[in-house]
Amino acid sequence: MAYGDKVLDHYENPRNVGTMDKNDPNVGTGLVGAPACGDVMRLQVKISDDGKIEDAKFKTFGCGSAIASSSLVTEWVKGKNVDEALTIKNTQIAKELALPPVKIHCSVLAEDAIKAAIADWKKKKGLTEQPAAAAPKEKRVDG
Amino acid sequence: MSARKCWSCGHEHAAAEVICPACGKVQPPPPAETALDKFALLGFAPSFDEPEAVDDKFRTLSRKLHPDRFVRAPAQERRYSLEQTTLLNDAYKTLKDPVRRAEHLLSLRGVRGDPKMSPQFLEETMEDREKLLEAKMSGNGVEELARGVREKRDSTLAEVRALVARGGDLAQAAELLARMRYYARYLDEVEGRTAEI
Asked: Which residues sit opposite A61 in a β-bridge?
């Protein structure tokens, strides 16, 4: 099967791999898993008081497409404000990486992870509006 | 159990019969939208444990349905033989694997979809995977970690068995079963089987 060069690039040179202190009040952590394949993904964002994402880190144990999806998301969200980051859709990720249909769930996981990370940060800051709106379906988990 | 009519001789027989008891013709597979009971396909009642003599049953049925036997048969029956063989192979694979078998048992009892994994479990998985990565880099402790995960896997399966046996919370059983995939992935990693890209 042919994978896009972008998947291979992110897979071989993942951006922003690492861990932040999850107890830092400015850090939001999203931890999500895909039971269908046993992948687990942690995505963290450091957010300034005015709601700007200053840094993003991820650690993913999973297939290359899951690694590439989370790597790409950390690149995209850096420098964005929280509301912008929440508009990222898995379809954009899948398109950018040219993921084959069987790997679409990897991009879903990455979308869930960034939403969960921001939701975690909001919770820490007491900003939780309607939790339902912030919660990406199914696999979302608070850190 | 519902009945249906043989496409060839019109004899009414149990829907689970893959070969018409009256004329011996291979029957069409059930319509795709009906939930397939893979236990019934091989003539068993759903069970957590591997049904007794499942290998014999599979071989016998497989021989009867094998497309090689139907090279001279009408196109319709040739197609049915191929379709039934595909279903049979898949059912056999399911019944032979403890996790797939248990998942299928739960799906027959109405448990559907991806279970939601608990945050604690995901946290633990992340830690386990990080420890494994470190052990692999330092070159020691991998086997010990693997043993720990194998134990967790075995005790989780035992827990599912107990839960199913006492008719407990099946959604919880589904979550426990989903953990098996994380353990399997972990053990793949131990043995150096890399995930596809």
From this structure: A40
pLDDT digit string, tens, across residues A95-137 = 999 999 989 999 999 999 999 999 999 999 998 765 554 445 5
Tell whether ipTM is more than 0.95: no
Q: Is A6 on the interface with B (CB under 8 A)?
A: no
Give Cα B95 to chain centroid, integer Å.
5
The residue among A47, A31, A44 whose CA lies nearest residue A125 is A47
Taking Cα atoms as reference points, which of A14, A136, A121 lies closest to residue A75? A14
pLDDT at A1 over 60: no
Q: Could you tell me the two tokens for B8? A: 């060839």
Catalytic residue at A63? no
Q: Name chain B contacts of A143, Cβ cutoff 8 Å.
A: 119
Q: Which of A59, A46, A31 is nearest to B134 (CA)?
A: A59
Interatomic CA distance for residues A94 and A66, integer angstroms? 11
pLDDT digits (tens, 9 = 90+) for A55-102: 999 999 988 999 999 999 999 999 999 999 999 999 999 999 999 998
Shortest Cα distance, chain B CAs vs residue A14, angstroms: 13
Q: Is B30 exposed, middle or buried (0-12, 13-18, 19+ CB in 10 A)?
A: middle
Cα four-point dihedral sign A121, A127, A132, A133: negative
Radius of gyration of chain A (CA): 14
